[in-house]
């Protein structure tokens, strides 16, 4: 078995896969793709023709799109189980995944300059993003019951998707204090060794900052 994850350490889409591979205890090779142009090189385009990270190669089989990769890993490497079997619980996990990808993550990109310590940001767009994020956080808070994770007693693929975005919100000034269940859920996740092992390094942050500054200067 040769598992290779092509990723960028600053990307939540990549990090959700990195965490899953670690949580499942799989052996894998981690290949960093620098987003300063490496994603357009022929070798990587042969794996990911849309030049997006992450991408996974498993013994020659290529998979792109992070949610598809998560489903692939869960189906092929089902231990530990990371998706609930109960219909309602499965729906909860899926809703968390898709709401994070389709609603929360696009709203958070408004705060990327702030996250990287850069100036800028349209006040009107920032306010709109805050309102969207508030709706998402209320939705997620209401999905959490007395179990420690979404629809489960154990960590699921809902956690690896939402849990690589929600805990970062306080960094850009969005408090989780109004969402006690979600706040406690975040604390549980960031205490895990898999979250700590995959946290972006200051060097990675600086590299992404320089790439963004170069793009903004054009």
Describe this structure in words.
The protein is of the alpha+beta class and 218 residues long. Strand 3 (55-58) and strand 4 (61-64) form a beta hairpin. It has helices spanning 12-23, 42-45, 66-76, 87-108, 112-115, 123-143, 157-162, 180-190, 193-197, 202-217, and strands at 3-7, 29-32, 55-58, 61-64. The N and C termini lie far apart (44 Å). The chain has two domains: 3-80, Glutaredoxin; 87-196, Glutathione S-transferase Yfyf (Class Pi), Chain A, domain 2 (Up-down Bundle), CATH 1.20.1050.10. Strands 2-1-3-4 form a four-stranded mixed beta sheet, with helices on one face. The chain has ten helices and four strands; from the N terminus they run βαβαββαααααααα. The mean pLDDT is 91. The longest helix is centred in the middle third of the chain and has 22 residues, at 87-108.
């Amino acid at each position: 078995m040769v598992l290779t994850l092509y990723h960028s350490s600053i990307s939540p889409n990549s990090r959700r896969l990195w965490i899953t591979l670690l949580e499942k205890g799989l052996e894998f090779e981690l290949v960093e793709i620098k987003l300063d142009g490496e994603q357009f090189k022929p070798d990587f385009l042969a794996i990911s023709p849309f030049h997006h990270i992450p991408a996974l190669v498993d013994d020659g089989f290529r998979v792109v799109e992070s949610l598809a990769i998560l489903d692939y890993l869960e189906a092929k490497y089902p231990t530990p189980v990371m998706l609930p079997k109960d219909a309602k619980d499965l729906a909860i996990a899926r809703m968390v995944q898709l709401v994070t990808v389709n609603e929360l993550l696009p709203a958070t990109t408004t705060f990327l300059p702030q996250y990287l310590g850069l100036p800028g940001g349209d006040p009107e767009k920032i306010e709109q993003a805050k309102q969207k994020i508030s709706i998402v956080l209320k939705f997620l808070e209401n999905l959490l019951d007395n179990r420690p994770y979404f629809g489960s007693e154990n960590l699921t693929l809902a956690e690896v998707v939402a849990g690589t975005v929600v805990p970062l919100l306080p960094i850009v000034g969005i408090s989780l204090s109004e969402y006690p269940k979600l706040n406690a859920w975040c604390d549980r996740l960031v205490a895990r060794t898999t979250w700590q092992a995959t946290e972006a390094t200051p060097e990675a942050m600086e590299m992404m900052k320089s790439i963004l500054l170069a793009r903004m200067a054009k």
